[in-house]
Design a protein that fits this description.
This protein is an alpha/beta fold and 418 residues long. It has 2 domains: 2-64 and 261-415, no CATH class; 67-256, P-loop containing nucleotide triphosphate hydrolases (Rossmann fold). The chain is built from 17 helices and 6 strands. The protein has a 6-stranded mixed beta sheet, sandwiched between helices. Strand 4 (148-153), helix 6 and strand 5 form a beta-alpha-beta unit. It starts with a helix and ends with a helix. The relative contact order is 0.12.
């Protein structure tokens, strides 16, 4: 045991430096400076085995991060349609928020993201519902438990809009004011007027809302004009950027990964976040590789690879359910979208697929050598930590590259982007 520790000490700093360089190159913003210092200290005193539990806890924290977004406003303003749009769903999709011309929500209703269930949108009963007085509504909705609130309004700014904004502002809760159904309003104005100026009309609508909020004691508040059926137009992208910009690093990560893939820019944002995860999983793999049991490291590496690649698939909208939902939303045949994805990335990810595709060309050689060295005490342990880290890091990096390129092609095919 003493010899093993000494040999590990000689090589492990090189491995960890590679891990640090990989981590730094991907800017792991969801680690605090204190956590990074602890990681460094633990490795210096105990090597990979000491670091592994800390990495596992961080991954668990990231996976369990909750984001609760409340959507409030008058009855009939399109809250449910907005919630569906933010999750990439249509009203007939499984798990979609119910929509209709009458109030369909009598209590706060939770709608989790279809693949990241810890990201939740809450559809609150309409402020104009006869079920609530103004005072009881504000009390029963418990706004404190939400990360932020989105107030959805339609038509002219109302007294209920003002009361709701005032109370949320009084509680010190961050809120965003959304004017929905802007496409319908503009179409109506276009039919009624000989000369129609879309920009001028939008500014009039925006000024009405900003003025109403100002009279309620909330001056110069930003107002977003959106259509839930046209997420690529008007202020919808500006709204998403504002929500993202106001969240802390860990919650921002959850929000971005939960966005539906509606543009190449969103795909690229997801890619940047997922790249930051890779070194953590590679470090876990390196810890497994230091255990000198024949075949154990390779089996653990494959298990890690499969779980992480499936997670990448889901975040980038390339799992089968996500592709079908996107096809339904855009009216494109699902076969056309699947044709944009590399064949080995469709369907179930298995050990056989991982070992057959290009990612594993160099890694198979490393794993075979590692398997042989596992029978040699000391040397197997030393080489194991390095080879497992490098294998997992390289394969996940290449897999994410392939998945990202496929997701970009899917977006272009779905939304006819050149």
């Amino acid at each position: 045991m003493l010899n093993r520790c000494c040999f590990n000490w000689k090589l492990s700093p090189n491995i960890f430096r590679f891990s640090q360089q990989a981590a730094q190159s991907e800017t792991p913003a969801f680690f605090t400076q204190e956590e990074i210092s602890i990681l460094k200290s633990e490795f210096e005193t105990g090597g990979v085995e000491n670091v592994q539990p800390l990495i596992q806890n961080k991954i668990k924290e990231l996976n369990n991060t909750e984001l609760n977004i409340a959507v409030a406003g008058d009855t009939g303003t399109g809250k449910s349609t907005f919630i569906n749009a933010m999750r990439g769903l249509r009203s007939e999709d499984e798990g979609a928020a119910a929509v209709g011309n009458k109030e369909t929500t009598m209590a706060p209703t939770r709608y989790p993201h279809p693949t990241l269930p810890n990201v939740r949108y809450w559809d609150l009963p309409g402020t104009g519902s006869t079920q609530f007085t103004a005072g009881s509504y504000l009390k029963k909705m418990q706004f404190q438990k939400y990360d932020f609130v989105i107030i959805v309004s339609a038509g002219r700014f109302t007294g209920n809009d003002a009361k709701l904004a005032m109370e949320i502002n009084r509680l010190g809760k961050k809120f965003y004011f959304v004017r929905s159904k802007i496409d319908i309003d503009l179409n109506c104005m276009r039919r009624q007027r000989k000369e129609f100026d879309k920009v001028a009309e939008m500014e009039m609508i925006r000024s009405d809302c900003v003025g109403g909020l100002g009279k309620a004691g909330i001056p110069n508040h930003t107002v977003f004009l959106i259509s839930s059926f046209e997420p690529d137009r008007y202020d919808f992208n500006r709204l998403k950027e504002a929500l993202e910009g106001d969240l802390t690093n860990v919650k921002k990560r959850a929000f971005i990964l939960a966005l539906p893939i509606e543009s190449v820019e969103i795909v690229q944002k997801k890619n940047e976040i997922l790249k930051k995860d890779i070194w953590m999983f590679a470090t876990l793999s390196g810890g497994m590789g230091a255990i000198p049991i024949p075949g154990l490291s390779l089996a653990c590496d494959i298990g890690i690879l499969i779980r992480v690649i499936i997670h990448f698939q889901q975040c980038l909208g390339l799992d089968d359910a996500s592709l079908h939902r996107l096809a339904n939303r855009t009216g494109k045949p699902v076969e056309e979208l699947k044709a944009a994805v590399k064949p080995h990335l469709l369907g179930e990810i298995t050990p056989d697929i991982i070992m057959r595709i290009g990612w594993g060309t160099a890694a198979v050689t490393v794993s075979a050598l590692e398997l042989a060295l596992d029978f040699v005490p000391v040397i197997g342990s030393i080489f194991g930590a390095g080879s497992s880290f490098l294998m997992t890091f390289t394969m996940l990096r290449d897999a994410l590259k392939d998945l990202t390129e496929s997701a970009e092609r899917v977006v272009r095919a779905a939304f006819e982007i050149n």
